[in-house]
Amino acid sequence: MKIFRLRIPIAAILTAYLLAGCGDGDVQEVKQWMEEVKQQTPVTVQKLPEPKRFTPYDYSAKNDVDPFSPAKLTVALAKMQANSGSGIKPDFDRRKEPLENFPLDSIKMVGTLEKPGLSYALLQVDKSVFQVKVGNYIGQNFGMITKITETEVELKEIIRDAAGEWTERKAKLELQENKK
Q: Based on the structure, what is the number of domains in the chain?
């Protein structure tokens, strides 16, 4: 019972403190001070700058050739070929040979054949074997066979460099021996 008797006075004291916190507590003075400061402070609004005058741009190149069209690229490549001073260029008018359809790194030399006065190289692509001689073309870079020995096939390729010029490059295929 004593505990119950103590709870009532403590609850009454707490309630009094809570109600005291809800009072005005000099808030009216703060509101009055804020009103005075508002009236004394001048309102300054900066003037917005005038908007810039828009002048439409007349696009005069709309009737020109599209810079991304294939026709313009073809014309540019033709000019580059005409201006090319090296004189090296592949023969586009000749008939392509069967080994020109394969990249050079997929072609293997597997042997040679010799007839009186003529050497042939045996080249394998996938499971097919082809017989080639000096002057035949192989690879996708206009590679022409220049020399055939028992151990290798030498060729010169005609490739386009970064500047668009045709240049020659030497390559070779070496004999692939079967390892058992």
A: 1
Entry pTM: 0.52
Is position 164 within any domain?
A: yes
Phi, psi of 99, rounded to the nearest 5 degrees: -75, -5
Given a contact cutoff of 8 angstroms between Cβ atoms, the answer to whether 148 and 121 are in contact is yes
Whether 119 maps to a domain, the answer reads yes
* Per-residue pLDDT reduced to its tens digit, 89-99: 888 889 999 99
Quick one: which of 167, 171, 161 has its CA closest to 104? Answer: 171
Q: Which domain holds residue 145?
A: 98-174
Q: Is residue 41 assigned to a domain?
A: no
Share in percent of the chain as helix, strand, coil (round to 5) = 35, 25, 40
What six digits make up the tokens of 64?
């020109």
CB 107 within 8 A of CB 99: yes
Q: Which two tokens stand for residue 56?
A: 């439409």
Q: How far is CA 178 from CA 18, 83, 120, 172, in A?
A: 100, 48, 19, 19
| Each residue's pLDDT tens digit, 61-95 | 877 777 777 877 787 777 766 665 567 888 888 99
CA 24 to centroid of chain Cα atoms: 70
| CATH code of the domain containing 128 | 2.30.30.830
Residue 180 belongs to a domain: no
